[in-house]
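Supplementary Text 2. Reproducibility record for the structural model of the 377-residue chain.

All settings were left at their defaults, and a single model was retained for analysis rather than an ensemble. We include the record here because the model underlies the residue-level annotations in Supplementary Table 4.
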Amino acid sequence: MDFETLCIHPVKKIKDAAGAIATPIYQSATFAHPGLDESTGYDYTRQQNPTREQLEYVVAGLEGADDAIAYASGMAAITVFMELFAPGDHIVAADDLYGGTHRLFGCISSKNGLVFSYAETTQQIIAAVRPETKAIFLETPTNPMMRVFDIAAVAEAVRGRDILVIVDNTFLTPYYQKPLLLGADVVVHSGSKYLSGHNDTLAGILCIKGTALAEKLRFITKTTGSALAPFDSFLLIRGIKTLAIRMDRQQQTAIRIAEWLSEQKQIATVNYPGLRTHPDYELSNRQASGFGAMISFSVKDAGLVSRVLGRVNVIRYAESLGGTETLITYPMLQTHADIPESERLRKGIDNRLLRLSVGLESTSDLIADLAQAIESL
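Retained model, structure tokens:
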């Protein structure tokens, strides 16, 4: 079946005797046993719950994964993945990552003995691999600078070397990009974003290639207790039903806004892989079937930032992304505030950079809102 159909009718479904069209919310912490040494397949929700299991079936099918595990947040998913490694293990990571991922790697995983190297390009990622390297962690496109890494090239370079390649696919979702088909071993999502699509829940997903790896991650998940609750699982199942149509509409608007921003005299740079002037346009176009709806841009004068953030009306000044509402974020003080200033500036995350998550409002209304905010400057 096509992607749009699989969002609504996954190949694998939990059994429901009542024939409910919407997946039921099994709001139960525990499940009764029919008898000694007998189980319905569900014992305790920390281990598995029917609603969460249905969500995992849906996302695994969309990503082409052997298994998927749902977590209480995207950061919970990445934290569980880090438990695969031991002190002294080396991990190569993209230099431009979500600030929470940087915080986890720098403040917690490093304290636990893991060693990290960061690289800005695909070739630098490959060159940074050492004999003790156990994993490569990529975001593509990156947050917030919208750089693109060649997933297939990285996977091919470490093939047969017992190095896991994990890709954060939050920005493009499996609708536009399937990292597992490009050679990655694990895909991570902040399900709070496009998968949910409505800014109403937190969630994370790991999509895994290989049953042995999946079993290791399920054991860690059961032990650490980081799995997603039933009601939040239901919200993601509901949100995913409209994923394809939302992504298409949001991308259409994002392309028009990115083009419009690039023509404004108050804007210095626009970072969006769908612009032909973007340095990674060709790679992005070859690797994915779409560019997504995330844009970052720099104003020419840092003094203009507060006036833009204070004057937008339809667009809301708030953290997060991927929902029906268009949100504008100031990475320096929000998503990447915990990164040391020298590192932020080196990455280009300075006091002139803004990030825009394009929602489902009218394209003309969004451009008009940006215009009145920018023109007021």
